[in-house]
């Protein structure tokens, strides 16, 4: 790999770190949680969490899961934002909920959980009775 290609890859990784850090910071702000509070809730050191938010560190999937738990949002949302998972597809209702900027990640996840529970319930009730 050439130096130019290497620097492009490094730049993309740095951008991902900045993107996930900014996303975590936005989620923390919308939840009205201080950096120190999130640090305690997630079990991640305050300095390390600060470095993640500033894009200086790229957290592992395990750390993202802990942060998601502290923020009370789905780990999947953080994985997608960090580039670990592809954006899931799920039809027009799921896409509309995910695209709604007026909802927090937690609200989106709750709506999607309720929606999926209704779909599962209807799928089992529509099955013909066993004779």
Overview of this protein structure:
Residues 24-78 form the HTH cro/C1-type domain. InterPro entries: Cro/C1-type_HTH (IPR001387), Lambda_DNA-bd_dom_sf (IPR010982), TransReg_Diox_bact_type (IPR050807). Pfam families: HTH_3 (PF01381). Mean pLDDT is 81; it is low at 2-14. This protein has helices at 3-30, 35-42, 46-53, 61-71, 75-82, 92-99, 105-125. It has two domains: 1-85, Orthogonal Bundle (434 Repressor (Amino-terminal Domain)); 89-131. By secondary structure, the chain is mainly alpha-helical. It is elongated and about 65 Å long.
Descriptors:
Helix-turn-helix transcriptional regulator; mainly alpha; Cro/C1-type_HTH; 131 residues; DNA-binding; elongated; TransReg_Diox_bact_type; disordered N terminus; 434 Repressor (Amino-terminal Domain); 7 helices
The percent range for strand residues is under 5%
Point out poorly predicted stretches. 2-14
CATH superfamily of the largest domain: lambda repressor-like DNA-binding domains
CATH class of the largest domain: Mainly Alpha
Q: Under the CATH scheme, which architecture of the largest domain would be assigned?
A: Orthogonal Bundle
Q: Enter the CATH topology name of the largest domain.
A: 434 Repressor (Amino-terminal Domain)
Kindly state the percentage of residues in helix. Answer: over 70%
Tell me, what's the shape?
elongated
Question: What is the count of distinct domains?
Answer: 2
Number of strands: 0
Helix- and strand-based class?
mainly alpha
Order of SSEs: HHHHHHH
The biggest sheet, with number of strands, parallel, antiparallel or mixed sense and barrel status, is: none
* Average predicted local confidence, pLDDT: 81
């Amino acid at each position: 790999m050439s130096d130019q290609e290497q620097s492009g890859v490094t730049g993309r990784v740095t951008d991902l770190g900045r993107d996930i850090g900014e996303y975590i910071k936005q989620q923390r702000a919308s939840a009205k949680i201080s950096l120190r509070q999130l640090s305690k809730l997630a079990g991640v050191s305050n300095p390390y969490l600060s470095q993640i938010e500033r894009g200086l560190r790229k957290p592992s999937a395990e750390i993202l899961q802990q942060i998601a738990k502290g923020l009370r949002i789905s780990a999947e949302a953080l994985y997608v934002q960090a580039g670990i998972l592809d954006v899931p597809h799920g039809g027009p209702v799921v896409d509309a909920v995910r695209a709604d900027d007026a909802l927090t990640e937690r609200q989106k996840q709750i709506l999607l959980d309720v929606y999926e529970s209704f779909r599962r319930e209807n799928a089992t009730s529509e099955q013909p009775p066993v004779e």
